[in-house]
Specification:
Shape: globular
Distance between the termini: 13 Å
Oligomer: single chain
Strand content: 5-15%
Structural class: alpha/beta
Helix content: 25-40%
């Protein structure tokens, strides 16, 4: 995982004119399928924000399930989250996996954030990114198709942290981005 993070940072645009550009991170692989891809996407989002870029994290395909809240029927995962939610918890259930200590050390060294101030799990990480200005969106058509919402613009069984996009909006957001990553 650390190797993927370092490789992604090496591929990051190095010129000063890259700062301030819109970065679109397209997350299509769920954390329960392959947590490495999700981890790298979150880390690149942090690197881009720290570089002064405008970042959007777009949850699509299997990654939409990572935004499912604990109150949704059948909310579960293949591994054990860091904390067990109650059914009234509206946070994303699958993103409750703890950040590894080694990753915290890497992030602390790279970005000068004290380890004690780093998030404990991926939901807290996503919240931290959102607090830093990252736009968090998801494919509303996909969420509706798999019954996580009652409409394309709904989010009844999804965490409040993200905003649904219809298909036209997905294309618009992608077209507005200067930098595109897919995970």
């Amino acid at each position: 995982m650390a190797a993927l993070f370092m490789l992604a940072l090496l591929l990051w645009p190095l010129s000063s004119d890259a700062a301030g550009k819109k970065v679109f991170l397209h997350l299509k692989t769920g954390i329960t399928q392959d947590d490495n891809q999700m981890c790298v996407a979150f880390n690149i989002a942090l690197a881009a924000v720290q570089a002064g870029d405008q970042v959007e994290m777009f949850f699509d395909a299997a990654a939409v399930f990572d935004l499912q809240n604990a109150s949704a029927e059948g909310a579960s995962s293949t591994s054990q989250p860091a904390s067990q939610p109650t059914t009234s918890d509206k946070r994303a259930y699958n993103l409750r996996y703890e950040l590894p200590d080694k990753l915290k050390a890497i992030l602390s060294a790279q970005f000068g954030i004290p380890k004690a101030q780093l998030p404990q799990d991926y939901y807290e990480y996503l919240q931290m990114l959102k607090d830093k200005g990252v736009e968090v969106t998801f494919n509303g058509a996909m969420a509706h198709l798999v019954s996580l919402s009652d409409s394309v613009k709904g989010k009844e069984k999804l965490a409040d942290i993200a905003t649904p996009l219809d298909l036209r909006e997905v294309v618009q957001h992608r077209e507005q981005a200067a930098v595109y990553f897919v995970y």
